[in-house]
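FORM 7B: Structural annotation worksheet

SECTION A. Query
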Amino acid sequence: MTGETIQVEMGNGDHAEAYLVTPAGSGPWPGLVVLPEIYNANHWVREVADGYAAQGFIALAPDIYWRQQPGQYLQYTPQGQAAGRALGSAMDLQAFSQDMRSYCTALRAIAGCADRVGAVGFCLGGKLAYLAAARGLVDAGVAYYAVQLEQHLAEAAALERPLLMHFAELDAHVPADKYAQICATLADKAAVEIHLYQGADHGFNRFGYPPFHESSATLALERSVAFLRRHLG
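SECTION B. Predicted structure
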């Protein structure tokens, strides 16, 4: 398994930095874009990418703030949280569509990558994974505790790609009424799976940091890997 920092061609001569990790062997492997929390593609997200590579995916964790302030890989501190919230709230979500196309194109150009590419995202990245699936930018998506989806549920009308969503019972960012709204909006989407994890809070998958919830994280990962293998091959 090999991890490296690469430059992704974003069009108009622009480039964005990304962490790329390739499984051992010769493939072919499906591609996977790992979309981060507000803290961007920091050390934890790169470990997540490593984990998916170990499961047989070529994983790409991009600098999602490259249009605003490139290279902002933030720590889990009050200062990092404040910076991440400001950057995340200022993201151009329409421009994200073009960025996502560039990430997928970069993955498909890598030797050993199969044609199908998915996305997995956390918090802000969960919202981005939902948008990527709804906009038909990826072949399948996985969204962990996606925030602010109530602002983007109109896009669910166009959602045809498989989407797996993980939510936490104690998550104040996605309280019960918003969770119910999401479930009701997506209820008629046969390709959407939604799971609620009892006793877990926002960020339950962030191993090494609170509020990590091991049993929920383990089950969510098992479901995510099975889902991605089923839909990406």
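SECTION C. Observations
The domain at 2-232 is CATH 3.40.50.1820 (Rossmann fold). The first helix runs from residue 43 to 54.

SECTION D. Sign-off
Analyst initials: ____
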